[in-house]
Design brief:
Helix content is 36%, strand content 11%. By secondary structure, it is α/β, with parallel strands linked by helices. The longest helix has 13 residues.
């Protein structure tokens, strides 16, 4: 990280415009002083993707749970700004958990916010690799995005066959992805402030993020990815959603 990065010159000369942030939250019945968990959704997703299962499950296990929706039309810098500001507004240092492109947002936010810990779920840190996977799996839904259109995910990309078809269709109807060119770059995460423990999780059956990309992401934090075979890219919505969030929370309990 350079002195230029530390000063965040662009933030001074071209500040991120203010915006109302949509944050979903659930608090545990008993406050045991555990760090709040802030979920950051990926491309086309919003806070609802975590509110479906992981938010109530996290609160049920004693962690204050929050999820922030990306601002409409916001670029990567705006998304990072919103995550940092939301985390800073919480009463204790937060755990940042990002999914997909949201993991890229978290990786960048860690360079500015001293998180208690961080988890990158099926992280898209190499947009070109993810785009290549999308073209192979869902060419008709991906090609329009190359020319400024919307990316149309398929159930096969995000979920396994264990998720009921009507549920998969309902989830897909709520997605609204329009990728920005900046997300296609391969990201080298900045050095996290305070060196928080960082976990990378994913699935070898993910049709968006290849296993090699998961290994690279984990290696950036001197670790190996925790894998959940038989799950799709949307681990928080797929049929076996409870397994990864329980593993995450068990890992967090070891770092309190």
């Amino acid at each position: 990280m350079t002195a230029f990065d530390l000063l965040r010159f662009e933030d001074w000369t071209n500040p991120v415009p203010p915006a109302d942030r949509e944050v979903a939250a659930l608090l545990p019945d008993d406050d045991e002083g555990r760090p709040p968990v802030l979920f950051v959704p990926g491309l086309g997703h919003a806070a609802w993707a975590f509110a479906e299962h992981w938010l109530p499950h996290t609160a049920g296990r004693g962690f204050p749970a929050h999820a922030v929706t990306p601002r409409p039309g916001g670029d990567l810098r705006a998304q990072v700004h919103d995550v940092v500001q939301t985390a800073a507004s919480l009463p204790r240092r937060a755990v940042l958990i990002g999914h997909g492109v949201g993991a890229q947002v978290v990786a960048r936010a860690l360079g500015r916010y001293p998180a208690h810990a961080a988890v990158l779920v099926a992280p898209v840190l190499d947009g070109w690799s993810a785009l290549g996977s999308a073209l192979r799996t869902n060419p008709s839904g991906t090609l329009p995005a190359l020319f400024g259109g919307r990316l149309r995910f398929s159930a096969r990309q995000l979920f396994t066959s264990g998720l009921p078809a009507d549920q998969a269709t309902e989830y897909l109807s709520r997605l609204d992805p329009k990728p920005r060119a900046e997300l296609l770059r391969r990201t080298t995460p900045p050095r996290p402030v305070g060196n928080p423990p960082t976990l990378v999780i994913g699935s070898p059956d993910d049709r968006v993020v290849a296993r090699k990309a998961l290994d690279r992401a984990a290696a950036a934090y001197a670790g190996a990815p925790l894998m959940f075979p038989g799950m799709g890219h949307d681990l928080m919505l797929d049929d076996s959603w409870a397994e990864p969030i329980d593993a995450i929370l068990d890992w967090l309990l070891k770092h309190l």
